[in-house]
Amino acid sequence: MRNFKRTVAVGLFCTSLLAAAGAGLARAGDPQPSALSPPAAGQAGRAAPAEPEKPASSEPLIQVTGRVVHTWEDKPGLRIILVIDGFTVLTRDEQLTARDGVIWFDEDAARRTGKAALGVYAETGVEYRRADGKVEKYDSVFAEMATAGEISLHSDEPLRGRADGTEMFLRARKLRQEYLTRGVRETPTAVTPAPVPGPKVQPPGVREAGVPQEITIVAQDDVRQVNFTSFVEQGTRISAWSGGVYITRGDLEMAADNLIIWTPEDALRRAAAGAAAQEPGGAAAEAKAGTRLAAEAYLEGHVRAIQGRRVLQCSQLYYDFQQEKALAINTKIRSFALGRNVPVYYYAKEVRQLARGVFVGTDSWMSTCEFAEPHYDVAAKEMRLEDLTPEVGETGEKPQHRRVRFVGTDVEAEIRGMPLTHWPRLAGDVSEEATALRTIRLEHRRNRGAGVATQWHLLKLLGIEQEPPGFDFYLDLDAWSKAGPAFGVQSEYKRPDYYGEFLSYYLPNDGGEDTVNGESIDPPQRGRGRATWRHRHYLPKNWELTIEGSYISDANFLNEYFEEENEAGKQQETLVYLKKQEREQALTLLASARVEDFYTRTEYYPQVGYNVIGHSFWKDRLTYFQDSELAVARFRPAEAMRTARQSPPTLVADTVHEVDLPLKLGPVNVIPFLEGRLSYFGDSIRGGAEGRFAAREGARAATQLWRVFDGVESEFWDVHRLRHVNIFDASASAAQVSTPSRDLWPFDPTEAGTHEVIGVDDTGIVELGWRQRFQTYRGPPDRRELVDWIKADLEAFFYSNRQVPGIAPDNRPVFNRLEFRTDWRTTDVVTTWTNTTYNMDGGTLERVAVGANFVHTPRLSYIVGHRYIPDGESAQMLLGFDYRFNDKWRLTVMEQYDWDQRENAQSDVVLTRRMHRWLMRIRFQHESYKEGLFAGVEFQPVGVKEMRLSW
After folding, report:
1. pLDDT at 76
2. More confident site: 475 or 161
3. What are the distances in angstroms from CA 124 to CA 138, 145, 427?
4. Measured CA angle at 182 (ends 181, 185), to 5 deg
5. What are the boundaries of each domain within the chain?
6. How far apart are CA 352 and CA 364, in angstroms?
7. Residue 385's CB: how many other CB atoms inside 10 A?
8. I want to staple 653 with a disulfide (CB 3.0 to 4.6 A). Which of 8, 680, 852, 949 is the partner?
């Protein structure tokens, strides 16, 4: 079915009522002089020039949207718009949302005055956001809105004719009359009249016992001739229409070429008697009452049934109004996935509605592709769907996602009719934004070969309808031409008292290759895999338990199959950690073991710790820190470190105490500190026990200076007022130690005296920092925001008594150096940046990086940069851009070229083509360190992020 979108625009040309109402009032987001500090002594004290008044906008000031829209002329010059489902009225300052609504628009008055006043009725889940930001909620409401711009009307379906016989319109008309009779129709232009709340509206499709819900039948259009006949047979009145009619009943709306309804004669007589009393007319009144109280209906020819966001199309439909049951032949149901912003289509040879929101279909399939033969789908021999989404009236809030329980038999995922997977039974209780298939990828990789990788919601595949709250279980099923089959289970869980994750993956017979240092090698073993469990539990009395267990089959496995986790994920450990924390004090217990011999780890059997973080004493003049431990530790280096020795189980006692003295010396905050450390090791690298005493003393200081320049104005640089902020910080410390770290086992990596790290040794460190921020206002005159125009950071680092230069535990270099970084928002389009490191020991530049980011237009953005590392003999040029040719084509390129090595470091080219319901990506990738070229084509259905087909 084509997705129609019609727009009705009424052009009006004069000053907006809403703009007039808001004249002279400050709007949220306007820059305030107080946002910058007041002028300091000696500065220009004049106020910033007044901002010019914003001209009235020529863009549409009222937008009306809805899925199904009826519009007709009630009388000459008065247009009525009735909206079913998704009713929204949006102005520049106000917003009204509801499920359904009605609008009265006086076109004649708009033409005469150039001002349009809309009478707006809304019901079911109404939210009215006023110009001041206040949100009011109603069951039903009538309000007036005004505009001098355009009124735009958007509908997902073709605009339809009269619907003045529906129950909603009658309720709307009644509340409008009450509103007008109060004498508030004419209001001052500078005052927005308050909305008039209406009575509580019964949720659509729900009615009180004994109260029949009327059925309204109207012609579809004025072109075709509608024929009507009615007769009585065996106590039942049978009425027939042909020529195209609409049938409405609450929130259910149907249309067909031909219609037959059956009404019990006794109900007809009771209804006719009541109708005749109010509307004399004999047989006519009887027939009218009969159609309103129909019990059953048969529809044929271009049948459509609309209820909420569901649209059903079929060739034949039987509907039982009393039991809300139906039978449809050759059915197509159209719904809408809010979480994906795409339509969802459900096809079936036969569909039975067993109750409201409960459907059973045979020979059915589901897809986001609307073609009769969909490009991709999930098919089932029989599928039962039960809509569990609460009505707005049940919870008082509009549901964010539709919740559906489904059960399918003989379920297959298909592409172009070719089945990819098969499950005898598939069931679940999910929201509309979730599917059993989480991801699917068809890929070709040099080391693994061609293959398919899928991930599924495990409990849905097992037919478990009620998933445990807070738990997600996933099943990985992969197959590769070289690496062979692979499978794994993943789980993520989060409950009020605990949370955690479980990861597993296994290849029984890996026949692929691994890439190590740019070379391809055979896997160290055929059966490969991993299993990792991390769990944290909050126990009573402020106790906290952490458990981690990890098994990796070989050193190359994570890098080959979980590269991102291997480079940036948490360290693989096996441990039990227990902690009790009371305010600033904590007691800890740690036991750990190394499982994989290719990792360097310290095992504890166990470690007991006590920590104090920031305890104030002496009337808050001093702050105390402590870190103490008593442990039996064992250092175990990786097997690849052939020169490193393994320690025996060693008794370690270590306690560190620090006292800070926070001071304020005028505008400067100064914190002198003194640290003492006492340690005992039962064994050492030199052999025998060792004791160690260490001391560290120093100070940290920081201050800020700023000044505001009110007179700075530049249209060229887009600078409007300027604030210059200077932040100065400094720290200096000196350490003395009785035993150098190179004589001790490196149980703690931060103490290892190797060429990689610098430990606790006689070292002096001085760090100086100067950070500048130039801030200004940017943006439209009425919505300017404070931004950092220029950032400039300068830092200096000085070290003394260094035994072995290298890298500190936090990965900082430990040579004397200067670091300078800038970030300049030249315009709203261009941002330039630099990053420079100068080695004062060698008098050389250690690293230089410069570049710029450009957001030229919404269609074009690009980045250029250059990074130079003399010691690494690397000078890389970076160039990347993203360009949208049109709505269908998009090109993304990223290129890194090393001028020193005279080779291409990395190239990425992605060409994206948006097709009807697919995204096609053609991808080329080259990385020099992997010595490989990847070229592939990827397909992804629009809105179905779980499915990606790549080669």
Report:
1. 79
2. 475
3. 8, 19, 32
4. 85
5. 6-16+56-197, 216-322, 437-572, 830-951
6. 12
7. 19
8. 680
